[in-house]
Amino acid sequence: MMKKRQYLPLLAKLDFKIDIKRLLKEFYEYGYDNYNNYDGLSYNNTSNDGLIIRRVLLEYFLTDKEKEERKDKLIANGGEAYKMLCLTEFNGNLTKHNRNFAQKLKESGISPHKFAKRLEKISNPDHPDYTPIADEKLYDKRNEYCKGYVAEVMDLLEEKVGHVARTRYAVLKAGQEIKPHLDINTDKAIRIHIPLITHPDVKIGIKGKKCQIFKHMQADGSVWFMNQAYSHWVKNNSNIDRVHLVCVVIGQNNILEAKKQWWDTYDKRSEIKGEVKQFSTIS
User: Fold this and answer.
1) How many Cα atoms within 13 Å fall on the side-chain side of residue 118?
2) Is residue 13 part of a domain?
3) 217 near 170, Cβ under 8 Å?
4) Pseudo-torsion of CA 68, 230, 81, 20, nearest 10°?
5) CA 96 to CA 105: how far, in whole Å?
6) Residue 18 maps to which CATH number?
7) With contact defined as beta carbons under 8 Å apart, do 208 and 264 qualify?
8) In a domain, 201, yes or no
9) Is the pTM for the entire model greater than 0.85?
10) Nearest-CA neighbor of 157 among 5, 6, 10, 23?
11) Which residue of 36, 94, 149, 251 is 20 to 30 Å from 258, comparing CA positions?
12) CB-based burial of residue 238 (10 Å sphere; 0-12 exposed, 13-18 middle, 19+ buried)?
């Protein structure tokens, strides 16, 4: 039984590492540093529903200018601030599972932002409006980009944490940010982050009920669990592009066993380090 968000830390550094030098070497050898090929938030060979889901995701990843340019567009390409190269794809029939979201949204007049709040419900197999295309747990079919050592890393996560589904290289450009947002609860799936390219001025924020943390993840082969069910964001205040390997995992093995965990509780020592900030209420 997978645990909900309140029974897991906001952040945890797991007790095993990957060979970051080997992963980074192949990253460059395969040309994955060519961000023009990162089309995970762009038009692709998918259904209209798939494009709608991607449009919803854009709400958090676009700059204000990019967002304004796409304001009245139901289907739109991603921007340049945040881009993804997907290593897995939908393991199902796109035509069969299409639910004609475009038409429904036009008829209802609901905005992409409001629709985003429904994603967890429609990605739940027990919900009457379950939509497989919105269920990132079904994006576990490895594609042509999933080769070499990164495939071994995913196999390691299968062994150590749980079943690896939607996986991508995610680049956040220099000086850009990912806006605060929540993803599905942790009893459905979790997020694993492995930083490849980063800088001390790149930090992730996670806001719990009692405190929030703001921390830099080093690119030293560490494997991080991030509690995506709480509001979280990223700020890249550096002059380099940040790249993480991000995996959706169905399983929670070795998280509570990790030696380094940051919980939604106040810790004076962490505040001194600048990692945790206490507050009394959350708006």
Assistant:
1) 17
2) yes
3) no
4) -170
5) 19
6) 2.60.120.10
7) yes
8) yes
9) yes
10) 23
11) 149
12) middle
Contacts of 4 (CB under 8 A, 6+ apart): 185, 186, 187, 229
Most distant pair of Cα atoms in the chain: their distance: 54
- Classify residue 54: in a domain, yes or no: yes
283 falls within a domain: no
Token pair 């747990």: residue: 137
At position 39, the amino acid (one-letter code) is D
Cα dihedral sign for 263, 264, 266, 272? positive
Q: What is the 3-state secondary structure (H, E, C) of 166-195?
A: EEEEEEECCCCEEEEECCCCCCCCEEEEEE
Which residues are registered as beta bridge partners of 142? 88
Nearest C-alpha neighbor of 133 from the set 97, 100, 167, 104? 97
From first to last of its 283 residues, what are the pLDDT tens digits of the chain? 999 999 999 999 999 999 999 999 999 999 999 999 988 755 555 566 666 666 666 667 767 776 676 666 655 566 778 899 999 998 987 777 676 666 666 676 666 556 666 666 777 788 777 778 778 899 999 999 999 999 999 999 999 999 999 999 999 999 999 999 888 899 999 999 999 999 999 999 999 999 999 999 999 999 999 999 999 999 999 999 999 999 999 999 999 999 999 999 866 555 546 666 665 433 2
Residue 200, domain extent: 5-278
Edge-first strand order for the sheet with 242-250 is: 82-86, 163-172, 242-250, 190-197, 222-226, 11-17, 260-262
Full DSSP string of 230-260? SEEEEEE-SSS-EEEEEEEEE--TTTTT-SE
- How many helices (H) and strands (E) the chain has is answered by 8, 14
